Amino acid sequence: MKLSSACIAVALTIFSTNLWAEETTSGFSYDKERLPGAKPWTSQPIQNDPAEFQFVVIGDRTGGANQEGTFKLAINQLNLLLPEFVINVGDLIEGYSDDKAELNAEWDEVDEMLSKLKMPFVRTPGNHDIANKTAQQVWKDRHGATYYHFVYKDVLFMVLDSEDPPRAAPEGMKDKLELYNRLQVEDPAKAREMLAEFMADEAVVAALGKPVEFGDEQMAWIKKTLADNPDARWTFLFLHEPAWENASASFKAIQKILKARKHTFLAGHLHYYDYDLFDGSEHITMGPAGASFHQEGPGNVDHIMWVTMTKEGPQIGNIALKGIFDRKGLDPELFGAYDRKGADKEAKPKKDE
To answer: What is the pTM (predicted TM-score) of this model?
Structure first.
């Protein structure tokens, strides 16, 4: 059956105008006299669903924090992007100290940086953050519980404690971190050599491969939280160590409880981006945001993860920190923080200098 030219014209008009042309409730309007027919834009709807929202996930800062200020740079960039909130997957301080004053001083430094953010920042405890009983108490005094949840627009966010209880640290960990951080300034080549030796140490390799267990109290809380929120349209679970890498009995139990729910796991710890899909659910390990690089490869990148929660599930885009800069353009003085290679000495001066 052939359509008349009049029918085709009507169909094309309806297609071309769509939401952009007739619905003014979205705040969109245009000059109808200048554009009475065809439109210089496509017909897809404006992405303004009130049920959708955006948040950012950011990885480790420490475990050998770089000296170029990458995490501080990330804070400034987050203020350019303005997500609704930011969630970290642990390791904001070097930690591994039994001195409360020293630990509080490290948290004061972090909180000073975070005070510049224009949106909430959600913390997940990492092995550096709560490395021992003293550090655990400092966390609880400053930040409250080490595992907790909140709900936003019918989405359940659960922060787990993968250091329950904290594992024994490699011998002399605090001293090694202090030496490594100093060498990054005094002798970068020696710092890289030291890091390579540390990551090859048998005790470190064994610790990284040890299954992550979750205590009875936390398991009971996980079950209750899920039972109390049966209608959540999605569940995000944040923890520091990617427990799925060598799943313990307790983590397998968590996965089993979640099997019937739409959910996503996000972790850090390894300082290397990695993606896994188990039984249809995404398990993602974040790359760092200033922490030392632990291995070579494409996952060796300072980045943030931009998540848009849609009706179908999370839409995820990873953004390398060196891909975000403000309206004035790329600042050569920040090349070190972007690429960890130091400033470009041959960079041209700014126009206003």
So the answer is: 0.86
